[in-house]
Design brief:
By secondary structure, the protein is mostly helical. It has four helices and no strands. The chain binds heme C (2 copies).
């Protein structure tokens, strides 16, 4: 049997979550802004990717690093992967690029493969060109000590 006190606690918790979600929702605006669904909006402002530059530091160790260079016209399809022409283990030295890490050779069952794993083939699924975008919600997030050394 559920005790009344427990029900009250659950109710309070639930209400708290609704309040918290409403508070967040007020600050986050979708790309449509507050335009009603039956009206057209203007196109959202385009982000201007930083052209080739210094990589923005990672915020956590497992983060896919941002791409510090332009990738316009870099094709990735079944037969060809432009990224690998510079980032594969065979080519990285000549290109002066970072080689893809070991993790990119593991399948989902952690078997180590000789070639890049299918789940890491479409690079731009995880890696995006970098832009110094403002956070959607102001926050006090600090990268971990393992990265900052502080
Ligand atoms: C013409 C060669 C070339 C191609 C093609 C290329 N890159 Fe790069 N990439 C580089 C070089 C050189 C660097 C190192 C630049 C630096 O660190 O300033 C780099 C850096 C990076 C980094 C940062 C690595 C780090 O250590 O932080 C990522 C991620 C990356 N590239 C992803 C990609 C992806 C994804 C593609 C395909 C869409 C791609 N690159 C295509 C040459 C290339
Ligand atoms: C499923 C997500 C995912 C895909 C797809 C993916 N990567 Fe990564 N990549 C990561 C993550 C996460 C890291 C950082 C941790 C690590 O090394 O695994 C990383 C790290 C890297 C690094 C830095 C390695 C280092 O030693 O610092 C390079 C370069 C890179 N990826 C290139 C690529 C290229 C090129 C492709 C496409 C052929 C690709 N990645 C596909 C998630 C991905």
């Amino acid at each position: 049997m559920i005790k009344p006190l427990r029900i009250a606690t659950l109710l309070l918790l639930g209400m708290g979550m609704v309040v918290a979600q409403t508070a967040i929702a007020e600050h986050v605006v979708s790309l449509r802004g507050h335009t009603p669904l039956d009206e057209d909006t203007g196109a959202p402002e385009l982000k201007h990717w930083d052209k080739d530059g210094q990589p923005i530091e990672r915020d956590y160790v497992q983060q896919p690093p941002l791409i510090p260079h332009q990738i316009d016209g870099y094709k990735i399809n079944q037969k060809f992967n432009k990224c690998l022409t510079c980032h594969s283990w065979a080519n990285y030295r000549e290109a002066g690029a970072t080689k893809i890490s070991q993790t990119h050779f593991e399948d989902r069952d952690a078997n180590v493969l000789a070639n890049i794993s299918a789940r890491r083939y479409f690079c731009t699924q995880c890696h995006v060109p970098q832009v110094n975008a403002r956070p959607l919600v102001e926050n006090t997030f600090e990268p971990i000590q393992a990265i900052t050394g502080k």
